[in-house]
């Protein structure tokens, strides 16, 4: 974290075009430079800055206060710096205020963080040039449903949640989508989270005949459920959501446990060379570092394509496949990722990886 903060401090509030790197595409990088989000802002600045330098592009770095009423000033800074594309944008408060002015200036925005569905709906209605590299709200549930319908339709399934807002909404969305497709779980319930054991729960699951369970809860709860099922000799395939990407403690996760989650970008083959180069430069490719590098690469490729083809920049961002550290990236007509970024993964003792065998 301290290293990333030092990297962020190397980007002043606003770098005029041409002052950071050799002439090329001028990319605005909007990220918090202080306050509670400074570490995340440092990740955005480090990733986008690294990619821009490697591509011999120019960076205009703008502080993002993440408070209401500051978006217009952020937009003015980007316009004054004559950026061609802006990337980053950790907070919806900034985007809402900046997008109207950026529309008038013809500056597209690629956010690496904001997931709110309603913001994109407003953007499409108003013609705001917003593109989202982050997954949209609902993408996690949609992928869970896809996996269940693909792999578990022949099995008795259970859906349980921990009663938190996220856990309950995730499981409710999955349940509703499965119901629309005629698949009904044999067991639905809310369990009490944070317990040292869940033997009563796994015994109830056994009585219902469930052999596969999706858990809307924390990694620690999933680990305890899987452990107790094994100790009770209850064959149970356990799958959690993106919250499974957490520390493997206090109870280690059983090998073979499943998660529908965003993959570890640093482990992707498309990121290998960049990860090595970043680490050699003292940058750890964590958090928003690689997504921000991908956003900067997309910005560069889109501008170059628009210039060479004499076409509007925002139009080139739609339907074009860009090569990035995250792999190929395409935005649809709705300005969202064409491919759901969530993936089914299996725990292999030290890390998640694609499953080696069928999940059922």
Describe this structure in words.
The chain has 360 residues and is of the alpha/beta class. It has two domains: 2-135 and 267-325, Response regulator (Rossmann fold, 3-Layer(aba) Sandwich); 139-261 and 342-353, Rossmann fold, CATH 3.40.50.2300. It contains twelve helices and 14 strands. It has helices at residues 2-9, 38-54, 71-80, 92-105, 117-126, 139-151, 165-180, 199-208, 219-231, 272-280, 289-309, 313-317, and strands spanning 26-31, 58-63, 85-88, 109-111, 130-132, 157-161, 187-190, 212-216, 237-240, 258-261, 321-324, 327-330, 343-347, 352-353. A seven-stranded mixed β-sheet has the order 7-6-8-9-10-13-14, with helices on both faces. Strands 2-1-3-4-5 form a five-stranded parallel β-sheet, with helices on both faces. The chain is elongated, with a radius of gyration of 22 Å. Mean pLDDT is 92; it is low at 1-22.
Low-confidence residue ranges: 1-22
Strand order of the largest sheet: 7-6-8-9-10-13-14
Residue-averaged pLDDT, rounded?
A: 92
CATH superfamily of the largest domain: Response regulator
Would you report the number of β strands? 14
Outline of this structure?
This protein is of the alpha/beta class and 360 residues long.
Topology, pairings included?
Blueprint: H1 2-9, E1 26-31, H2 38-54, E2 58-63, H3 71-80, E3 85-88, H4 92-105, E4 109-111, H5 117-126, E5 130-132, H6 139-151, E6 157-161, H7 165-180, E7 187-190, H8 199-208, E8 212-216, H9 219-231, E9 237-240, E10 258-261, H10 272-280, H11 289-309, H12 313-317, E11 321-324, E12 327-330, E13 343-347, E14 352-353
Parallel strand pairs: 1-2, 1-3, 3-4, 4-5, 6-7, 6-8, 8-9, 9-10
Antiparallel strand pairs: 10-13, 11-12, 13-14
């Amino acid at each position: 974290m301290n290293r990333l903060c030092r990297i962020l401090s190397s980007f002043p509030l606003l770098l005029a075009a041409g002052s950071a790197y050799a002439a090329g595409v001028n990319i605005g990088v909007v990220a918090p430079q202080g306050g509670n989000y400074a570490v995340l802002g440092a990740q955005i600045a480090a990733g986008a800055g690294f990619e821009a330098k490697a591509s011999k592009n120019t960076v205009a770095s703008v502080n993002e206060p993440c408070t209401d009423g500051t978006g217009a000033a952020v937009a003015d800074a980007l316009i004054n710096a004559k950026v061609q594309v802006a990337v980053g944008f950790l907070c919806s408060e900034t985007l809402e205020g900046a997008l109207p002015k950026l529309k008038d200036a013809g500056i597209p925005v690629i956010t690496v963080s904001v997931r709110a569905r309603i913001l994109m709906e407003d953007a499409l209605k108003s013609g705001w040039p917003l593109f989202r590299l982050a997954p949209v709200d609902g993408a996690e549930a949609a992928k869970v449903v896809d996996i269940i319908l693909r792999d578990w339709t022949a099995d008795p399934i259970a859906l349980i949640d921990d009663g938190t807002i996220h856990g309950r909404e995730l499981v409710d969305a999955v349940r509703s989508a499965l119901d629309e497709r005629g698949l009904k779980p044999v067991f639905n319930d809310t369990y009490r989270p944070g317990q040292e054991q869940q033997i009563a729960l796994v015994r109830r699951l056994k009585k219902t005949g469930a052999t596969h369970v999706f858990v809307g809860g924390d990694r620690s709860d999933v680990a305890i459920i899987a452990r107790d099922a094994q100790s009770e000799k209850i064959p149970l395939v356990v799958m959690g959501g993106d919250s499974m990407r957490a520390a493997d403690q206090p109870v280690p996760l059983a090998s073979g446990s499943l998660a529908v989650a965003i993959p570890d970008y640093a482990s992707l083959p498309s990121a290998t060379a960049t990860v090595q180069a970043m680490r050699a430069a003292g940058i750890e490719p964590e958090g928003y570092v690689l997504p921000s590098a991908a956003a900067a690469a997309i910005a560069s490729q889109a501008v170059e394509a628009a210039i060479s083809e004499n076409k509007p920049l925002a139009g080139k961002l739609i339907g074009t496949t860009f090569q990035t550290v995250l792999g190929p990236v395409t935005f649809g007509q709705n300005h969202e990722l064409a491919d759901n970024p969530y993936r089914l993964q299996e725990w292999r003792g030290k890390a998640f990886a694609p499953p080696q065998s069928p999940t059922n």
